[in-house]
Specification:
The strands form 2 sheets. A 4-stranded parallel sheet has the order 2-1-3-4, sandwiched between helices. The protein has a 4-stranded parallel sheet with strand order 6-5-7-8, with helices on both faces. Strand 7, helix 24 (384-394) and strand 8 form a beta-alpha-beta unit. By secondary structure, it is α/β, with parallel strands linked by helices. Helix content is 54%, strand content 8%. The chain is built from 26 helices and 8 strands. Among the domains are: 8-93, Alpha-helical ferredoxin (Fumarate Reductase Iron-sulfur Protein, Chain B, domain 2, Orthogonal Bundle); 297-422, 3-Layer(aba) Sandwich (Ribose 5-phosphate Isomerase B, Chain: A).
Length: 424
């Protein structure tokens, strides 16, 4: 049921409460619109809200199609988050677009991935069988040229339970937040991250958590996302309060804990615990870079050759995108960053039939031409979406940052780190 029948003042108060943003602080400089990779206009949405025209704001294509890449947030000189305002507007107006099952499926990707992994390789064959693309396009609104990532029969948690730890654990424990993609699509990322952390002297423990809720947030299922946030904060708080880092590899997932949970749980009994958990959340490169820079990582690297590096858009907005690039250099590679706001996939956005053209066009601006122009370089990313966007349109093999760093570890990793890992 839409809430647009409420008085405008009540609607604006509700939007402010959900988003945590002050729309009146925007002075219409237009940087958000100029930065949008998909040529939407968050500036116009906010202007209509400033004028109390909620119904006109809802009618804009920006509200219907915003990909939540947060490029607008990264450039706002006033620190306003237009993406959260748009998301709140969707919730207030009960906006849902596209086939009704598609939003639910994307929002509950963790359930589908778990099932797909259990049924692999049959599930992978079914997704690539003749006619599967057309069925997805007309049944779910997924573009026929897109392919759902393959499911791994052997999951990352199964590998973790059966492994023999390496390293001495001298630095103490860290909690590895193992996301859905790591568990069921790309366990090689989790394996590389675990081994890097152990070689660096950490004792790795897996978090006892559920899906971060980012897919639910992006598709407007905020009540479900809050339930996931409550569950994860309750499970993580005790160890986080003890000072243990919560380490993640997928920026969209880890940064949901760090940047979304305090907002989702603001004003609740878990607000302080959410803030404690958020303070302990760190991406893998953010954790390792300070150790490497001061020559205390304990890993000797011998990486070689050029690397083309693309950082996740949410990492650019809420994290440290330069950390991965710096680590690659310290590992001995010759890294170069691709200067682009977003790869064009933006989670589920690039899979949706109506957004396929926009998704591809954004990639063709800088990212795809850069990849094609460097056939000799490793292509390294930090996000799942980026990995598959590049692979879909360039055919290149793409690695996660953790995998590239693990490949660069010297054959005798027990030696003290050499000059490559300790350069300032």
């Amino acid at each position: 049921m839409s809430l647009l029948t409420l008085p405008q003042d009540d609607l604006m108060a509700r939007i402010a409460g959900i988003s945590g943003q002050n729309v009146d602080a925007c002075y219409q400089c237009g940087r958000c619109t100029a930065a949008c990779p998909f040529s939407f206009s968050p500036q116009r949405v906010i202007r209509h809200l400033q004028l109390g025209q909620v119904d006109r704001a809802v009618s804009l294509e920006t509200v219907r199609s915003c990909a939540s890449c947060f490029a607008c947030t990264a450039v706002c000189p006033k620190g306003i988050d237009p993406a959260r305002i748009i998301r709140a507007l969707r919730e207030v107006s009960s906006e849902r677009h596209g086939p009704p099952w598609r939003g639910w499926l994307f929002a509950n990707n963790d359930r589908l991935a778990r099932m797909g992994s259990r049924l692999a390789p049959v599930s992978n064959w079914m997704l690539r069988a003749p006619g599967a693309g057309l069925a997805e396009q007309f049944g779910l609104g997924i573009h026929r040229k897109r392919r759902v990532p393959r499911f791994a029969r052997s999951t990352f948690p199964a590998w973790f339970r059966g492994r023999t730890p390496i390293g001495d654990g001298r630095r103490g424990a860290v909690l590895l937040f193992h996301d859905t993609f790591m568990d069921y699509n790309h366990p090689e990322t989790g394996i590389a991250a675990t081994e890097l952390l152990e070689l660096a002297g950490f004792r790795v423990e897996l978090t006892d958590t559920v899906c971060c809720g980012r897919p639910m947030i992006s598709k407007g299922f905020l009540d479900s996302a809050r339930e996931h946030a409550r569950s994860n904060v309750e499970r993580l708080h005790r160890r986080a309060a003890e000072g243990l880092p919560v380490v993640g590899c997928e920026p969209s997932c880890l940064l949901a804990l760090r940047s979304e949970y305090p907002e989702l749980l603001r004003g609740t009994d878990l607000a302080e615990k959410a803030a404690t958990v958020a303070r302990r959340c760190v991406l893998l490169d953010e954790l390792l870079l300070p150790l490497a820079r001061r020559g205390d990582l304990g890993i000797r690297f011998e990486g070689r050759g050029p690397v083309l590096f693309h950082a996740h858009c949410q990492q650019k907005a809420f994290g440290s995108p330069g950390a991965g690039l710096a680590l690659l250099g310290l590992a001995g590679y010759d890294p170069e960053a691709v200067d682009t706001a977003c790869c064009g996939m933006a989670g589920a956005f690039g899979y949706e039939r109506e957004h396929f053209g926009l998704s591809r066009a954004q990639g063709e601006r800088e990212l795809f031409p850069a990849v094609r122009a460097h056939p000799e370089a490793r292509v390294v990313v930090t996000g799942m979406s980026c990995r598959h966007q590049i692979q879909d349109f360039t055919g290149r093999r793409v690695q996660h940052l953790a995998e590239a760093l693990r490949d660069a570890v010297a054959e005798d990793p027990g030696q003290d780190q050499g000059p490559a890992a300790g350069r300032p």
